[in-house]
Amino acid sequence: FVLFITTFGFVVCVSTFLAIVFVLFGGLALLFTRQEKSMGDVYKDITESHGLYKVVAVMRKPRSQLKSDRRLTGSQIIDEQLQGILTYLIRDYVYPWYDSLSSDEEVPHQIHVTAQRVIISFANRMKDVDWIPYLTTGLVDDAASHLRLFRQARAKMKGGTSSRGGVDLESLFFDLELTMEESHLCRDHVCLDADNEKSFLRELTQVLLYLLTSEEDFHCSTLLCLVRELCVNSVLVPLLDLASDPDYINQIIIWLCKDIPVTSEVFLTTLRVTDNPVELTATKELLYKEMASLRSRDSGG
C-alpha cells in the first residue's frame, strides 16, 4: 500500500478509492430501481406457494377464544368429577414442563379436548356393551379361577411340594397359571416387572386410542404420544398400584360392610379359620384396647 502511494501519488489513490465506491453505490441503486416487485408482492407469492400456504393462513387467522364442551357422559355429577381429574392431570403433568417452552394455551387446551373426546367415545361404547353376561359369567369365572390358583399356590408352598427350593408364592402362582393355560399364556413378565407392565399398558392404550380417537387426532403423533403417556403414567399405573394395595382393599371391604352388622358368631368363625399369627396378635391387641376403653366408661369399675 505504501509502495502504491509513493509510486502513483496520494491524489491518484484517493481518486481510485472514490471511483470504486461510487461504482458500487451506483450498481446497488440500479438494482433497486429495476426491482419491480414490492414486499407485498413477495408476500403474495409466498401465500400462493403450496409449501407455505397453510403456515401463512394460520398466521393470518385471528386468534379465537379457546372453548370446549364440558359434557362427557350425560351425568352432571360424573362429568364434574371427570373434568376435575382432567384439569388436575394437565396442571400437574403438562404445565410444569410446558411453561418453560411457551405461554400459549392452545397445546394444553388441545390435550384437554382430545382427552374429552376419548372419554365421550369410551362412554358411548360402554353403553353398547351387554354387561349382564359379563358380570354374571365372565367376571365371576375369572375371579374364581384367580382365587383357585392362589389357594393352590399357597397350599403347595405350605406343603413343601415344590420341586425347587426357595420359590416364592408369585412364582408358584404363575407356574400354575401356565399349566392351566396349557403353556399358551403366562402373565408373569407383565405383572412382576414394572418396565414390562408400562410397555404393555402403552400398547393397550395405543389400541384404545386408535379405537376411540378421531382420525385427525390419531395421526397427530405428538399429541397422541402426550395423551398416551398421561393415561399410562398418571392414570393407569397409579390406579393399578392403588387397586393392588392390601390396605386399600381392606378399607374398601370395611366401607362396603359398614352397614352390615357383624355378630359374635361371625367374628368367632373368622378367628377360627384364620391361620395367620400376625393377624391374630393384632386382633388380640385391638380387643384389649376396646375392653380397656369400655371399662374406663363403666362407673362401677
TrEMBL record:
Transmembrane portions of the chain: 6-32
Pfam families: PXA
UniProt KW Repeat keyword: no
A cellular-component GO term for this protein: early endosome
Keywords annotated in UniProt: Membrane, Transmembrane, Transmembrane helix
Organism ancestry: Eukaryota, Metazoa, Ecdysozoa, Arthropoda, Hexapoda
Stretches assigned to the PXA domain: 75-261
Repeat is among the record's keywords: no
Record's protein name: PXA domain-containing protein
InterPro entries reported for this sequence: Phox_assoc (IPR003114)
One Gene Ontology term of the molecular function aspect: phosphatidylinositol binding
